[in-house]
């Protein structure tokens, strides 16, 4: 039985939800983590995402892809975390040495400076650019899927991705 059908059936909702989280939980965690950076913040946002998905399955109308719907919820929760931490991740220059140290430890990239440099470049992006970049680059979503998940137009997403790509490219060229 399909997850969508299980979520729609009250007697199978819990089973469908568990299957949904088994299938997408790790991808959602990493999607959120790339936006909020911190493991603890990602865990909090993922938990809130799971709660909202479970409570909102009745409102899912099945008009779009299920993955787009859950990514929209996850993205909104990640943005909520960023709003709570306003000012913390505006640019790499504003990060405290302690936070950078934590980032290095959490990333576990002792041998791979390129991965750390990419993470630092992403931190320096405005949140909308960071979201579209991570959804295209890491999650391999199409612009149409990202538009469904974020509520932004495909044109806006392409512009944001282009600017993000250019900023990341420049940062990597200067720091690797």
Summarize the structure.
This protein is mainly alpha-helical and 176 residues long. The chain contains nine helices and no strands.
Task: Tell me what the structure shows.
It is a single chain. This protein starts with a helix and ends with a helix. The chain has one domain. The protein is elongated. The model is unreliable at 88-93 (pLDDT under 50). It has 176 residues and is mainly alpha-helical. The chain is 74% helix and 0% strand. Helix 3 crosses helix 4 (66-84), helix 4 (66-84) packs across helix 8 (143-150) and helix 7 (127-137) crosses helix 9 (154-175).
What's the structural blueprint in terms of helices and strands?
Blueprint: H1 3-8, H2 13-36, H3 39-56, H4 66-84, H5 97-107, H6 113-123, H7 127-137, H8 143-150, H9 154-175
Helix pairs in contact: 2-3, 2-4, 3-4, 4-8, 6-9, 7-9
Helices and strands, in N-to-C order? HHHHHHHHH
Q: Into which percentage range does the β-strand content fall?
A: under 5%
Q: How many domain modules?
A: 1
Rounded to an integer in angstroms, the radius of gyration calculated over CA atoms is 17 Å
Percent helix:
over 70%
Which class of secondary structure composition applies to the elements? mainly alpha
Q: Which tags fit this structure?
A:
mainly alpha; 74% helix; single chain; 9 helices; 0% strand; 176 residues
